[in-house]
Fold these 2 entries.
Entry 1:
Amino acid sequence: MNVIYPLAVPKGRRLCCEVCEAPAERVCGACTVTYYCGVVHQRADWGSIHEKICQLLIPLRTSMPFYNSEEERQHGLQQLQQRQKHLIEFCYTVAQKYIFEGKHEDAVPAALHSLRFRMSVHGLSSVELVPAYLLLAEASLGLGRIVQAEEYLSQAQWTVLKSAECCHATHSLLHRNLGLLYMAKENYEEARYHLANDIYFASCAFGTEHIRTSGGYFYLANIFYGLKNLDLADTLYTKVSEIWNKYLNNHYQVLSQARTQQVDLLGKQFETDTGLDEAQEAEAIQILTSILKIRESTSDKAPQKTIFVLKILFMLYYLMVNSSKAKEYAMRALDLAKEQQLSVHEQNTIQDLLNLTSAEEAHPITW
Amino acid sequence: MTTLPPLCMTRPKLTALARQKLPCSPRTIPRSQLIKEKDDIDHYLEVNFKGLSKEEVAAYRNSYKKNICVDMLRDGYHKSFTELFALMEKWDALREAAKVRSLFWLQRPLEEQPDKLDHFYYYLTRAEAAERKEYFEEVYNNLYALACYFNNSEDKWVRNHFYERCFEIAQLIKIDGGKKEAEAHAHMGLLFEEDGQLLEAAEHYEAFHQLTQGRIWKDETGRVLNLLACESLLRTYRLLSDKMLENKEYKQAIRILIKASEIAKEGNDKKMEEEASYYLGLAHLAAGEYETALAVLNTYANISADLDDDLSLGRAYEATAKVLQSQGQMAEAVKYLKKMVKIARKKFQSLDFVRASTMLGDIYNEKGYYNKASEYFQQAFDTTAELTNIPLMDETKVHYGIAKAHQMMLTINSYIESADLTSLDCLLSWKENRSDIAPDPTIGGSRRSTMESLYQTSEFSEEPRGFPDNQKKKT
């Protein structure tokens, strides 16, 4: 049975819900180490992250098995640490992906998991906790709970201030979320200040033309677009698209070079990939799709820009081995090119891209 | 450092606050403000006790460089930011490269020079705003202003970077008929010339020349651009040809110099023309083409005579004399050298005079007219003594000594060979006071006296230096 009675639990042991920390009434049947206060929360958690990490939680929440020697104990401890670290990263990535896909509700339990594990591994006031706080803040912003977001953000800011060595990437992330907060509060001055800081730190950490910096540019562009400063927004959007274009093209070149150089013994083709993890892919999709929407609204004056974005999206989906979506974007690009009667050269390049997908389909990857 | 007026720009709030914090800004408050009357509001407290706003905190806590960058980005000038960031990274890279070579790097980092950062902010943001509106002239002007500002010895690389940017932008400016493009070519040429890459410099200067042909544009100091182009082009060609002559590529050098003289002719500037022909003549001499050299040098002499330019006339005569000497026509050479000596004396050009006299003496020496030779060498030696130019003095001393030796050679030979009482007396007296010996027609005979006399005269020429006497080896 999945129901437990709080009173029947041994004295001093309080079982709390995963999601809300209320006294627990239910337990997950699959792993028996996770507790919930009600069915609603259990369903939410299962849909969000518990399905993926159910079995992984068992070794972390039960007592350690008996080891015969000191070495084995050490080994066991290390393994535990490894598992916790892996879980931290995994939950973080999953939560990020949800946020970029817009599913803020689902992101919250995953982010909470990440936070709790970070606390247990690194301690309560470590810099490592900051990304988790920021994620929670972003999720709350997405759900419209601005006060809660502010709380999380001030916690994050305080931790950053107190810690001596905080890397530029964390600063950048903090300022990005602060920028988003102020955007939600419609305080555009502050938002611009924070996003400027974000871009500066990201440039220090990664360089001015890196995909991690592109997020900052994108949000800044959004602000200007909201303030009706259209040409400024336009230049920033162009910059973002160019950054992504360069990255994806480079990646594609590297891959195709590798492909031509080393054909497998059985002549199999190598799998394509984007070199990004799932969250970054989701981020890329979100950014590029919103840029596309904005471009399409002004498509008559500058069709090249729309086609540019469509081509980038095509490349992204192609590298993600999602050929149906890739084809769709390529077709849209081709139609737009024909409609606007762009140069033959342009149409030919798009046609080449289409052929690429069909070539892939002709030789499917066989395992 | 060019003296541009200090920037009167309205700084954004952050940098204004940060400026106050900088060590170079005035810190002390005049004491009169600190004195408080009875029941008066304490202004000092009122002003300074408000506490700090977040912006003030940020301004104090962060470096000035960060404040500038954040200000740039806030207003959306992301291209300026990218450029500034790239320049700072380049500085870092240069410093790394320099660290390998030297222990301490004297140049201060860009971050710590607030004036330069201010200039960057001001001009780069204006350039970007102009670029958005596609006013390329504005962009060019702003970038050029930045290049001028950095035109000092330690920031050459920044200036070169902006020259390149100006060049790219200038390609896009079509409305002014290519004037900006021409100027940009000139700058790029200067860049390459300083760097030593003469071929590229020549290319750019050629483009500059072509664009300014037939136009009467003037640059900011009022000089006509076309003349500037000709000058720079000639200069580059000369440098190139020098290098080629060193590598013994005579044909190429001559070809380039011919091009140079053509350009000079087009430029309608006599001075440039004569310079070009002079160098062409020298190149022909080096290549061994004596006839052409003579012809060219003749034109040079004519032009100099037209211009009443005696110095260049002197040079022309010298060069012609050299050619004639190599050809073996000594009499002609002597004529020219005499003319040159006259001019040099008139114009008090001591070095030229020395050179000319030495050359004359050389020729006479070879031909056997030792008297004249030593006369000219004496003139040269006296002039160098006036100039107190030690290396030249030594050189002329040696020449003079050799000529004197030759002069006295026959006489001493005859004395020694005759070996009778009067000649020995003469010889001894000569040895005592080392003055000129009177030529005596008695002829004697021993062979080794030639070597001896030469030895003695070399001793004579070394005497003023104070070397120990080698008397022992004498008879």
Entry 2:
Amino acid sequence: MKKLELGFQWASSKPKLLLHRSSITTLRRYQLTAHGNCGKRKSAENWVRRSSRRNTNSSANSTRLNSELRSKQTCPKDYQTGVSLLFLLAAMAATKTRGSSFSRAVSAATPSLAPGLKCGPNGTVFLSSGIPDLDKILGGGFTLGSLVMVMEDSEAPHHMLLLRNFMSQGLIHNQPLLYASPSKDPKGFLGTLPSPASSKDDKPRDRDTDQEKGLRIAWQYKKYFGENNPNFTGHRDDKHEYCNDFDLRKPLERQFLIRQHVDCVSLQDSMNLSVLLDHCGTFLSQFPRNDNNSSITTAGRIAIQSFCAPDCGYSNMEWHMLSFIRSLKSVMRSSNAVAVLTFPPSLLSPSFCKRWQHMADTLLSVKAIPDEDRELAQLLTGYQDMVGLLNVHKIARINTQAPMILEATTFSIKLQKRRYLVLECLNQAPIDGSSGASYGTSGSCSASSKTGRLDF
Amino acid sequence: MAESVCRTLRDGGLEGEHAPALTIKDSIASPFGFDVFCHVLTQLSSFILAGKSQSRGLVLVAFCRSPSFYADLLKSKGIDVNSSNKCRVRILDCYTDPLGWKFRLMGVGNLRDLSCEASSTGILCKDVKDTNKLYSSIIELGKGLVAEAKSRFSVAIDSVDQMLRHASMSSVAGLFSNLRSHGQVSNVFWLLHSDLHEVRVTASLEYMSSMVASVEPLQQLTNGQRDDSDKASLTEQNLKKGKFHVRFKRRNGRVRVMLEEFHIEQSGISFKSASSEEVTNQGLLPKVQFSLQLSEKEQIDRSNVVLPFEHQGNGKPIQIYDGRNSLMEGKHETTSVSAGNSETNEGSGGGEIIYYRDSDDEMPDSDEDPDDDLDI
């Protein structure tokens, strides 16, 4: 029987468990720190279940432990987790070969979702942005209940690309849509929405990055795979894909536009933002959010384009606009919808620009690139196909305190085959070795005056 | 370049697209915006008269110069405004009586009727505060100018500063966006003095235009940097020449930046290409990474490489890559078998190996056939 040496060390407010070497490795993975996290509670539970299945446990202790862990509705304090684990480990030390009384819970807790929605970590639900690459970058899509803000560049219309894909995706999934724009006739914009690429066209990229085609070198172990996780039998058979590839040259079929009534609002006439807010409120009342989150039948989308455009009557009432955004965000939190709001930051005073950026849950910005810039062409691969740049400043993290840190925050917007919107990481072009320039002076490392903008 | 600016205006806009709009802006350091405006105006008028442009007529909204000035200007370039047959330019006169004071005084006192002057060339506008009315007058003039319903006309606005004195920014912005989206307007261009307004106003107008042409001094004067004699010569230089800097917003979303020098002469303004410094683009790229992705061709090539110990039991001779490029030769490499329980190799034939156990502590041979690991 293995001996487990347990000990507690109280140092300031960080209790640590001292364990035998073999258990430390498993515990380390779950990193119990002083400030426990709701998300970590689940992983602690899983660890408890898995390790006890290996090492077995007495039934009495296990049920008590089980109920202790389950009864915690809020984030457990660290010492409580520590104490529970202590009990568990004592129990592990006491008994051995018995049948495990922990049984794997069937994940019936996942809510039944309408097509077009996906479950995410920490109890959030995602809906697709309409651009597969953007969904991947954001970790699944736009979180339901969040406010997405896109900072436009007044020199390029790339925010329209994002909006178009977002709106089309909503119509494909039969999600109600509210669209507000400063033009007199917003309905005209609906004619420019793209249609999903049909399967007979070649998709822009093979989405099947089959990492597990089967083991190549360790092919002997295939015989040990019993019930494999059904993750790899992808959801490609579904008629409703979570995110479609949109062909920007094909307009959306009329049946989608007729099936779902799109609420169009013109911002030009509204002098008073409270009218617009009420309109949004009535729209959002169709998708209230319940606490038990059992099933979500529909989710809604709101798209507000160029919110502070100069031809809107309220465009110099900065505080009013800010309070509109604040109120919109609070209404969004209690409904199952996503709002995308685009605005040109150059038209706001700098302090308000910062305030608006802070209001966003997810903040993106698009930028134009100069045309025929030889330096950029030398610096980046694929410069010829690029139409602009997309920056991800902030990603919505609801229900968790852990931020999402991306490897890269700037992506190039390309139109593949002039049809499909593709986001790629910026990649440095190979430095031309044959030119004979030394490493210090070639390419981006040179000390020319232009390199102030590059950031390594 | 001024040439390409005029050419873009001449080509106009596509169906269903907003009309191209040009903002000409200057500042007190180099106050030649009006010269540039007149240059563009005369160029466009000559294109229209020659029939080379998309638009068939031009409506000029005159705020800061009288209509007769423009008539004289165009006449000096060979474009006759007053001839009723081929007249292609109409002027909306907002200079003579913008707020309608003289009109109202006429009724009271005994001022002469002023409307006779304007009637041949255009309409007199008496209320510039009402941008809706201004819009409808412009459209009315334009439609009167081009007879057919499908033809287009250009709109030139003398000075946006004067408009902004009387009307709010949002109404002026609304006017411009309505003009741009009107089906019959081919292009719009206007002049702005940037130091008369807040930054936001200039930014809004730039937001609404597809080309921004700024007139800048050749060298910026900075206070306290040079002594007086230098400053004087610099100012003198700035009064004769300057930089003409244009940003084009292209349809594919990229921005083209161009730079030229201009000279002010007796006859007008002349442009020539920039001599010295290049255009410096504003800062852009944060992190640029090395590409760690594989292109498609590279991925296919990688999957074709035969990895060592890969399952190759397809009947073909088994190849084990040993670091040399002898993969494709199809030599029979002997498979190496683990030591210990060695048996005769395929290639060696004939011999026998008898071994003795080293010690009894070793674990007895398991029942597993070690040959299970082999790829046979």
